[in-house]
Amino acid sequence: MRFQAGHDSQARLPACYRLARTRVGSRAAAGALVAACGLMLTACGSQIAAGAGASATSSVSASSSVSATASVSATAIPGTPSAASVEDCVTSQLKVSLSNTGALAGQAGGYLRFTNHSQTPCRMSGWPVVVALTAAGTATPLQHARSTMFGAWHYTAPPPVLTLKPGDSSYAVVESDNQPAGTSTRCPAPYVRLRVSAPGDSGNVTVSAWLPGARSYLPACTSANGSPTAQTSTITPLASLPH
Q1: List of residues 6+ apart from 60 with CB closer than 8 A
Q2: For residue 79, which phi and psi values (nearest 5 degrees)?
Q3: Is the dihedral of CA 51, 54, 58, 63 positive or negative?
Q4: Rounded CA separation 154/127 (Å)
Q5: Nearest Cα to 114, choosing from 91, 131, 130?
């Protein structure tokens, strides 16, 4: 419609001028008729501009409405929990066990397995707290490992954050040297139990430190300077460990 209106107004102007030249006797009357033609063209132009403005406004309003609707549809997804709503795992909602045990290159150990046996998802990240206990009750906190021979694990910063849905598991390597160091001819009595807490949690659970794959308990061997060698990795997925 805008193109038709513009074409008609342009066509009318020469017609007005021709009429002014041929049918009006006086110069003053012709001038008045030409002025009237100019007003007619101006009025047409105003109508065209108004129509275009209204069309553009309608287009912008429709576009804004569609954009707002799309935004709401993309963000408001009922029933989907956000990552921030998943809380850290606590020890009481985890089943802790020792798996994938064995001995390799002077070290013995296994994988602590943390299985979410609750009905809600939770997150784990960082080092678990593991205290090794001898039969006599001597308690030795396991060091934070930076790498392990057993499990071929290496620390990377930041440690991964794992979200465990009900039934899912995460892992941490526990290991210790199984050969005496320096002038020692034998290692101290082994650790027979492990007291384990999820990262950042004060609760704990105790599991056996027996390593079926190594046919021994977790060794309590020390380094040449007499410090304990038992250590634990950060929480990690099984996919990143040999199994």
Answers
A1: none
A2: 85, 0
A3: positive
A4: 13
A5: 91
Closest CA to 50 of 5, 8, 89, 116: 5
CB-side neighbour CA atoms (13 Å) of 164: 30
Q: Where does the pLDDT of residue 243 fall: very low under 50, low under 70, confident under 90, or very high at 90 and above? A: confident
Distance CA 215, CA 217 (A): 7
Q: Are 170 and 116 in contact (CB under 8 A)?
A: no
3-state DSSP call for residue 154?
strand
Q: Read off the pLDDT of residues 158-193 as tens digits, 9 standing for 90 and up.
A: 999 999 999 999 999 999 999 999 888 999 999 999
- Domain 91-240 fold is Immunoglobulin-like (2.60.40)
Buried b (16+ CB within 10 A) or exposed e, 195-218: bbbbbebeebeebebbbeebeebb
Matching residue, tokens 């079926």 = 212
228 and 189 Cβ atoms separated by less than 8 Å: no
Tokens linked to 96? 């802790």
Domain ranges of the chain: 2-75, 91-240
Question: What is the CB neighbour count within 10 angstroms for residue 162?
Answer: 18
Residue in 176, 188, 186 with CA at minimum distance from that of residue 218: 176
